[in-house]
Amino acid sequence: MEINGNLRIYQAVADKAVKNYQYIDHFYEVRLLDYSENCTYIIEKTNSSDDKYILRVCRPNYHEFEEIKSEIEFAKSLDDNTSVNLCMPQKADNGEYVQRIVHEGKEYFTVLFNYIRGNMPNIDHESNLIKVFKNIGEITANFHLHSIENSEQFSKLKRPVWDYETILGDVPKWGRWQDGKGLTENRYDIFNRVSKTIKKRLDSFGKTKGHFGLIHADLRHTNLLVDEKNKVSVIDFDDSGFGYYLYDLAASLSFIEHREYVPKLIHSWIEGYNAVRRLSEAEVNEIPTFIMMRRLQLISWIGSRDNETSRELGSKYSEDSDIIMSQYLKKYE
Questions:
Q1: Residue 118: CA count within 13 A, CB half-sphere
Q2: Which of 73, 75, 38 is nearest to 56 (CA)?
Q3: CATH 3.30.200.20 region(s) of the chain?
Q4: DSSP string, 26-75
Q5: Alpha carbons 18 and 299: distance in angstroms, whole number
Q6: Does 1 have pLDDT greater than 50?
Q7: Could you give the residue range(s) of every CATH 3.90.1200.10 domain in the chain?
C-alpha cells in the first residue's frame, strides 16, 4: 500500500486509541509527528501549549505484544533507578499501558507517552554536539550499569537481540545490506570484507556480562531532547534489546558516521562514559567495529524502507561510506 494509504489507516487507529483515555477529551487534536518504523502523533489542545501527549501507533508485525510490555518494563526500571529524564508511558482507562486497537479487522498496538519539552541536538552545530555527546556518554553508562546489575531479571524480558546474526547475518531484522542502494561491484566487495572482519572481531570480543546486555539501542539525536538548561532527556525505547554495550555508542552516531567531527564526538562520549563506568583499552579499540556494523545495518534499513528519511538518504549514504570503510579495513582486517 502507498504511504498515504498507510497514513490514513494509522490516523484512524490513533483517533480510536485516544478514546481509551478519559483525560483526553474532544478538545484535543491528534496530529502526525513522524512516520518511520512506527507512526508517532502529538496530541494537544487546540490553541494551548499545555497538556500535550505523544501517541505511538506500532507497525503491525514488528514487535509482539509481550515485546512492547517488556520495553515498558525496561524503561520503567531505568526511570525508577537512575536520574535520567525519560519519556514514560501513560496508563489508559483500563489500567494498561499497551492498547489493542482493531481497525478494519486488523489489530494494532498503541502506547501513550508524556510530553517532554526540548529540542533535538543539532548535528550541524559541532561545538554544541560535542558537549551533548559527553552527556550521552554519562547517560549510556548509567543505563549499562543498571543493565549489568539487573541482568538476571532483564534476561526474562522479551526483546530483540542485536548481534552480528540479527544485524548482518543471513536473516537480519532490518534486511540485508546486500540489498542496499548504490552498491557498485567495487563497493559491494569493500562492504563484504568489512562485514567478514566485523564477524571475526566480534567472535573474539565475546558476549560476556560486561560486554553484552539489555540496551537502548537507538540513542541518536532524534531520540534525545535538550532543554534550555542543557539537560538531556531520552525518548523512544522501541529498539531496545539485547546487544553489545558499545553498540549504543554506534547508534548515537547513526547517519553521521562519516562526518569529520566524529572522532571528537567519540572522545567526548568516552569522557562522559568513563566518569560513570570505565571502558577497557580493548573496548575502546573495538569502537570502530561497532560503528561499521551500525553503518552497514543502516544501509540495510535504507534499502528496505520507504519513508521520508530513507528516501532522503538514498544511495548517497552508501557512497559516503566508502572512505570510512576502507580506512577501517586498513586497520582491522
A1: 23
A2: 38
A3: 3-114
A4: TTEEEEEEEESSSEEEEEEETT-SSS-EEEEEPPTTTS-HHHHHHHHHHH
A5: 35
A6: no
A7: 126-332
* DSSP code per residue over 230-259: --EEE---TT-EEEETTHHHHHHTTTTTTS
- Would you identify the CATH topology of the domain 126-332? Aminoglycoside 3'-phosphotransferase; Chain: A, domain 2 (3.90.1200)
Q: Is the pTM of this model over 0.90?
A: yes
Sorted by sequence, the CB contacts under 8 Å of residue 233 that are 6+ apart come out as 84, 85, 86, 87, 116, 118, 224, 225, 226, 227
The CATH superfamily label for domain 3-114 reads Phosphorylase Kinase; domain 1 (3.30.200.20)
Q: Which strands sit side by side in the sheet containing 224-226, from one edge to the other?
A: 85-86, 232-234, 224-226
What is the distance between the alpha carbons of residues 302 and 312, in angstroms, rounded to a whole number? 9
Q: Could you tell me the three cell numbers for 37?
A: 518504523
171-186 per-position pLDDT tens digit: 899 999 999 999 999 9
Number of alpha carbons in the 13 Å side-chain half-sphere of residue 181: 16
Distance CA 80, CA 76 (A): 6
